[in-house]
Structures are given as C-alpha cells and as structure tokens.
Automatic annotation (TrEMBL):
<feature type="transmembrane region" description="Helical">
    <location>
        <begin position="219"/>
        <end position="252"/>
    </location>
</feature>
<protein>
    <recommendedName>
        <fullName>Glycerophosphoryl diester phosphodiesterase membrane domain-containing protein</fullName>
    </recommendedName>
</protein>
<feature type="transmembrane region" description="Helical">
    <location>
        <begin position="125"/>
        <end position="158"/>
    </location>
</feature>
<keyword id="KW-0812">Transmembrane</keyword>
<keyword id="KW-1133">Transmembrane helix</keyword>
<feature type="transmembrane region" description="Helical">
    <location>
        <begin position="82"/>
        <end position="104"/>
    </location>
</feature>
<feature type="transmembrane region" description="Helical">
    <location>
        <begin position="29"/>
        <end position="52"/>
    </location>
</feature>
<feature type="transmembrane region" description="Helical">
    <location>
        <begin position="164"/>
        <end position="185"/>
    </location>
</feature>
<feature type="transmembrane region" description="Helical">
    <location>
        <begin position="272"/>
        <end position="292"/>
    </location>
</feature>
<keyword id="KW-0472">Membrane</keyword>
Length: 314
C-alpha cells in the first residue's frame, strides 16, 4: 500500500493485496471464526427440521393435517434464520477486529501470523461488541421514530380510506428517510470507529468521536466508497452462494421430508461461512484503509509511517 493519500484503486488493490498476501490471518481466521459461530445455528436447524417433520404436515390427500406442526415448522425456520443472522453478525465483529492489525502491519510491508493478529485484537473484542450494539441501538431508535409514527397513524385510521392512505404514504416516506438516516449515521460516526478503536486502543464513545473527527469534511468520499463496496461484495456473495443454493434446492427436491429441509438449512449456513470468510476480511480491510487514508490526509500520519520504515530499515 502506498504511504500517501489513497485513490479509489488503492483501496481495492490494498484490500485485495492484504487478503492475498495474508490468507491465513484473513481468510483462514475468518473461516475459523465463522465455522465456530455457525455450530449452534446448524444444530438449531437440525433440531427444528427434526421436531417438525414436513411429512407430518400433510395427510393422504395432500392437505394440512396439523396446524400446530405447520406453525412450528414456520417458527423453526424463521428462528434458524434469526439465530444464524445473530451469530454471523457477532462473528463479523470479531473478524473486523482481527483484520485491523493485519492491515496496519501490511501497510508497513510487514506480515503477522494468525496468532499475532489474535493477540493484538482480542483485548478490543468486547469494546467492538459494544460499538456494534451502540450503532444498532441508534439505528433502532431512528426506525422506531420514523417508521413507528406512521404505523400508529395507520392503526388510528381504523381502515378508513383517507387516513389509511395517508398512513401508508407516511410509512413509505418514513422507511426511506430511516434508511437514509441509518446510512448517514454509519458513515459519519461508525465506518471508521472500529479501526480507530483497535488501532488506538480507545473506548467505544472515544472511537465514535474519533471517527466523527476523521470523517468531517469527507462524508461523500467515504459514502461513495462504502456504497461501491456494498455493491461489489453483494455481487460476490451472490456468486459464491449460488452453488450452495442450488445444492440445497436439489436436496429439497430429492428428499421432500425433513432431510430435504435439513439439507437446505445446512447448505445455507455453509454458504454463509464460505462467502463470509472471503468477503468479510475484504470489507474490514477497506474500512481500515479508509481510516488510514483520513489520517494521512488530516494528520500527516503517512509521514510518520515513512519515517518509521526508514528507521526500521537502517
């Protein structure tokens, strides 16, 4: 990575180069963390598909024979998805912390082992969880206000035409505004917070304030790269997940009993592990590079790093 303010190409080249040159400390660690995190969701999926066998939901005429089993299966499937989502989110927090020392050392032309990455980042993991919970709380409050109020209007209207129409229009507008607000909050206060928290060994609120200072005057630059990153990684995840989706669908078609549902759920979780192991370190690396780029631009941190490299190489 060049020790100067970064261009668009530098972000992607730097992130890809870091992952490619440090596969064990990036993809390897990410796969391990995700595999461990997905054990409980996979077990949950097995239990859900076993307790609520789809064969029991149909009688000889092909009609539902047990409303309780049908509801139970739906709840089980939704529950399995929610559990998988929660554990994936927790794993992503850990991976984001592990990537920070890898990228910062790579910027100096140095490489660290997975063990070193873990030792450098593990002290920050609880604070990273706190940072994630804080952002989740703020975003939830935004949605509660901007989406909750239109919902109240809809219920108050009691099905009347004009009131119901106004409520639905407000609900749509509120959802759009909430999404825009959530994105703005993330870019302004949280996109650079995790790298700052780990690199500078500071607390949650200090990291948020630090991210706010670094992003001041650079909002559109950070937002543009973040949106481009979401687009690129979204496509990559879909491509990686497609074979697993096909396998799961084939299982479901070949074994229309609980075995098929189990195959579908397991293949979905495996897709999360494989795609996450590749995409999450890349996303985390770009965030660290954005953090370094802002420090280069505002604090002359690139000069400090160049001097450090020169002293090291004497």
């Amino acid at each position: 990575m060049p020790l100067r303010p970064l261009t668009l190409g530098d972000f992607f080249d730097g992130a890809f180069g870091t992952v490619r040159r440090n596969p064990r400390a990036t993809i390897g660690l990410a796969a391990l963390v995700l595999a461990v995190a997905m054990v409980i969701p996979i077990v949950f999926s097995v239990v859900a598909s076993t307790l609520f066998d789809p064969d029991r939901l149909l009688d000889g005429t092909g009609t539902s024979s047990s409303a309780t089993d049908a509801i139970g299966l739906d709840v089980g499937l939704v529950g399995a998805s929610l559990v998988a989502g929660l554990f994936t989110a927790a794993a992503n927090i850990v991976i984001a912390g592990l990537v920070v020392p890898v990228v910062t050392r790579a910027s100096l032309g140095e490489y660290i082992s997975p063990g070193d990455a873990w030792r450098r980042a593990r002290g920050s993991l609880l604070r990273l969880v706190g940072l994630s919970l804080l952002e989740g709380l703020v975003v939830a409050l935004v949605f509660a206000v901007l989406v909750g109020l239109p919902v109240v209007v809809i219920f108050t209207a009691g099905g009347s035409g004009t009131g119901l129409g106004v409520g639905i229009a407000l609900l749509f507008l509120g959802a759009v505004l909430a999404a825009v607000a959530a994105l703005s909050i993330h870019v302004r206060w949280f996109q650079l917070a995790a790298p700052a928290l780990v690199s500078e060994r500071i607390g949650v609120l200090a990291a948020v304030r630090r991210a706010s200072r670094l992003s001041r005057g650079q909002f559109w630059r950070i937002l543009g790269l973040f949106l481009l990153l979401l687009l690129v990684t979204g496509v990559v995840q879909q491509v990686i997940s497609l074979p697993f989706t096909i396998v799961g669908a084939l299982f479901l078609a070949a074994f229309p009993d609980h075995g098929g549902f189990l195959g579908l759920l397991v293949s979905s979780n495996l897709a999360n592990i494989v795609s996450g192991a590749i995409v999450t370190p890349f996303v985390g690396s770009v965030a660290v590079l954005q953090y370094l780029d802002q420090r280069f631009r505002k604090e002359g941190f690139d000069i400090e790093l160049i001097e450090h490299v020169q002293r090291r190489d004497r």
